[in-house]
Amino acid sequence: LCLGSMALALWQRSAGSTALVLRARRDALEAEQRQRSLLAANTERERIGSAIRTEVRTTLDGVIARADDGLRLLDEAGTAGDVPDSAEVAAAFAGIADQGRDALARMRRLLRILRQTDAATSGDEGMRLSPAVPLADQLHEASSKRG
Fold it and tell me: What angle do CA 46, 52, 57 make, to 5 degrees?
């Protein structure tokens, strides 16, 4: 009887430790999954940040080139003693304004996607982003969901 109760006690004790081990493994797997999710979101943020920097650099280079062209147009007309063609000057500066507006709209879309990666990592259910999806496709998907 004594040996039977000792065996029963050992069996119950080992069953309890198995449950503790399984719970610890589950907790470790969940922590690893959260860490991987955070890493994926940070990678996506870096990718979007790089796209934003490239977009800003390209836009500013284009704006500077158009502004230089507009100034050159004014300088050429001034050195020749002519009055610059107001339509050409207006077109040059309208192009600069249009390019700036387009760049601002694109930056807003990129920032909206960046905020969605923040929401995805904070536990909110938003658009889940995958680093394997090209950014242009994500922008198209986000704009199609809105409208």
Answer: 125
The per-residue pLDDT for range 76-114, each reduced to its tens digit, is: 877 777 777 778 778 888 888 888 888 888 888 877 877
- Cα(110)–Cα(96) distance, integer angstroms: 21
Two structure tokens written together for 46: 């870096």
The string of DSSP codes covering 46-98 is HHHHHHHHHHHHHHHHHHHHHHHHHHHHHHHHHHTTPPPPHHHHHHHHHHHHH
Which tokens go with 42? 């940070």
Cα 146 to Cα 127: distance, rounded to the nearest angstrom: 12
Q: Which residues of the chain have pLDDT under 50?
A: 124-127, 129-130
Single pTM value for the model: 0.53
Q: Give buried/exposed letters for 64-81 (b at 16+ CB in 10 A, else e).
A: eebeeebeebeeeeeeee
